[in-house]
Design brief:
The protein has 319 residues and is an alpha/beta fold. The chain has one domain: 3-Layer(aba) Sandwich (UDP-N-acetylmuramoyl-L-alanine:D-glutamate ligase), CATH 3.40.1190.20. A hairpin with a 7-residue loop joins strand 13 and strand 14. Helix 7 packs across helix 8 and helix 9 packs antiparallel against helix 10. 44% of the residues are buried.
Amino acid sequence: MVIGAANVDLAGHAARPARLGDSNPGSVTWAPGGVARNVAARLAALRAGRAVRLVSAVGRDAWGRQLLAATRAAGVDVGGCAVIAGASTSLYLSLHQPDGELLAAVNAMDVLDRLDALRLRREAVALQRAPAWVLDANLGEEALAWLLLQQQQRGAAAPPVFADAVSVAKCAKLGAWLPLLHTLKVNRAEAEHLSGLPAGGERQAERVAHWFLRRGVRQVALSLGARGLLLARATRSGTPTCRLQAALPVRVHSVTGAGDAMMAALVHSHLQGWPPSRSAAFAAAAAACALEAPAGAPAPQAHAVWRRWRRGLADLETR
């Protein structure tokens, strides 16, 4: 079960270094997007036949119809998506430099506030049966509280919860629920905002990861951008395992969706029962696949992700 944002991504790629406040020549594309929607599509692709259900909200408009059709075509069950009359489907508008780096973005996601406890109750049976939940911090306070209280009430029988912090502006909503999270995925800025600690160097990043583990999170995935991924996992002995996985060399098309690919890889790794070293390697390769892919490209299967990993190792050895 993947619960959170589904939106249309409108991306502008400048042909030359873009200047804010000016019109910049380039290209504009659209693709189905949203953190939860992207994670769901990638989870469905990583293992053929895997049942993945998306719970989100879209408007009763042309964008909503296209978004649901594209998600269904990716192998995701969209029966949990509410179609709201009179609302507009969420849009994410981004502007990228020629190297793919994000220059600025605006999101219009008010429709997701309509995904309240009343609508989520309709998914109660499916939630009970799911082996894992993935939530994103785009969800409203009411939705997050309802979901995580359901998880808390089930105790030891509860499924693991994977949470994506999404952004500095939204990650604070997860702060009160850290003890109920199996995995928290954050970038450096989100980690610093939640913990109040610096995460600039490797030692600092480890201290921040340990801070989250001490508060009950069982696994922390701290994305360090071009420096890679720090994956920290709690152990029964009380001494956490920490794996710093270097980023693979990539030719970046767009940074949008790389974190979602990483999250899907972490959920897949958990369901496969992989150790931290294998999980971190797979997540790094999945992120590399997303960074290199053009907008709207189909998500890769697991064997393609591993091929990208082996190619990345060969590139590193050549360098």
